[in-house]
Batch of 3 targets.
Target 1
Amino acid sequence: VQLVESGGALVQPGGSLRLSCAASGFTFSGMHMTWYRQAPGEEREWVAGINSAASSTYYADSVKGRFTISRDNAKNTVYLQMNSLKPEDTAVYYCHKFPVMPYDSWGQGTQVTVSS
């Protein structure tokens, strides 16, 4: 499993970002995909998920209505559109397939900082 996240940046509260995650090493089109985030001093938390056909999406209550997960199976890429960003969204964001196996590696993540 190889995952390369990108698109993180420093953004002001209320701003938007679009994260991307390029995946390889597994059958992307057959797997549910998820986004997680980890803030400093906190445990990694689940943010959003999408099924293999992109027909169903799922969100944590903290991001519902502000974030949108999508995927392009032709490009082996999953996206996270983040709108109305808040300081509490500051974290390193990771993507992964679902389920994550104990022996699966993680990508380096992409840093999102929301600050004025």
Note: The chain has a mean pLDDT of 96.
Target 2
Amino acid sequence: QVHLVESGGGLAQPGGSLRISCAASGFPFKNYAMTWARQAPAKGLEWVSTTYSNGKDTYYSDSVKGRFTISRDNVRNTMYLQMNDLKPEDTAVYYCNANGVWGQGTQVTVSP
């Protein structure tokens, strides 16, 4: 079955960078669009970014456009989110999604 494991979260200072990963298994990764979403404390789930199967068609929410970059490695069955110029409002649990399944999430905290 579809299995997604996020990793790479942690603490960063405002203006800093982090890269989070989503390792996928149990389905033909290269054929599926992949999505990042996040949930900040006491807020609903927010879509962040999507990459289609070819990795070239990518989309971003306005809140992260120009700062975050989504990518995928269809050999390693892994998706990434490079997050630059982080802001305190980026603090959230970040989840990846594929084929209707969510991973367990990875915490990103942006604080001085």
Note: The CA atoms of residues 72 and 79 lie 4 Å apart.
Target 3
Amino acid sequence: QVQLAQSGGGSVQAGGSLRLSCVASEYIDSAYCMGWFRQGPGDEEREGVASFGYDGATHYSDSVKGRFTVSQDNAKNTLFLQMNSLKPEDTAMYYCAGGETCKDYWGKGTLVTISS
């Protein structure tokens, strides 16, 4: 089972930036999906934020498009999420995930808190 180790996150003021990292314990097949999800306070489900799809293209939710950038370092089995122009509504637990369905394995989550 692939293990995903997350780092980054924290607290910043609105307008600030943060970068999340996710290191996989082994090589992730490039045909698999890797991405970021988040679950805000009171939300029952996790929202897909950004991902690399099976075609290698990047996908973003409308709520973060233009502000967040997902990237990866295949040599280091690492996925990144650069978050700029952060808003209070971006406050959430962020999860790295991946696999054939993009939800087969998960990181433990990292908290991002944006103050106004």
Note: The radius of gyration is 13 Å.
